[in-house]
Amino acid sequence: MKESKTTGEILREEREKKGLLLRQVAAMLDIDTAILSKIERSERKASKEQIIKLAEILELDEEDLIVQFLSEKILYEIKDEELGSKALKAAEQKMKYNNKNNS
Amino acid sequence: MKESKTTGEILREEREKKGLLLRQVAAMLDIDTAILSKIERSERKASKEQIIKLAEILELDEEDLIVQFLSEKILYEIKDEELGSKALKAAEQKMKYNNKNNS
DNA sequence: TTTATTTTGACAATAAGTGTCAAATATAAT
DNA sequence: ATTATATTTGACACTTATTGTCAAAATAAA
């Protein structure tokens, strides 16, 4: 069974579907080709601004791509943590709790 | 209704319960008093190593304190994000999904 | 008021993130 | 096989965050 796609994999797939070159997309983002190459292979993380531009360039749903990007960022924080799963659940609880009492 | 406690609040409460001074606990942690003061007021974040030492010094359950610490770290990542809640849920999903396929 | 504790803010050192560039590698076309 | 184009890699530089020290200011306790 296949794992869920990384942001990089999504970006590469869509770029290739559109027949765009790294060079071309990198130019639109105003960064070096090397960085985009690294982003697509998950060697580096994109910034939020880059993600937004990429959604536009590749005609991906912006909200979906941001959620994808943020969730990856969250998982990165706890990737080596044994208690990561518990921490995630605790975070959700706190978020609920705090929302309830502010809104 | 009171919000859930921050790590800093927990640490301060427990330190005061034990009648320990910032100076004393900071010395045990081998950091300056100023930093511990800032940690307790959530002006700075403790490192994981410091959290572990603090659990021991203050006789708090280590696992609980780490979960508290990590969940705060996660929430910090998404604190200004409109899509934070969706991202958290997505992260949980991915975590489940990946666990299922590796273990 | 004196003494002890805590807080604040300026600063320094280090680590992490973000980018450029050029050379190496891989892919595609002649 | 050669050439041309695209991608990857790694060394380096620049910038921003993080983590700490120190000393002075503020607060609290004797």
UniProtKB/TrEMBL annotation, chains A, B:
GO molecular function: DNA binding
A Pfam family matched in the record: HTH_3
Stored InterPro entries: Cro/C1-type_HTH, Lambda_DNA-bd_dom_sf
Location of the HTH cro/C1-type domain: 11-65
Coiled coil: none
Protein name from the UniProt record: XRE family transcriptional regulator
Species per Swiss-Prot/TrEMBL record: Flagellimonas nanhaiensis
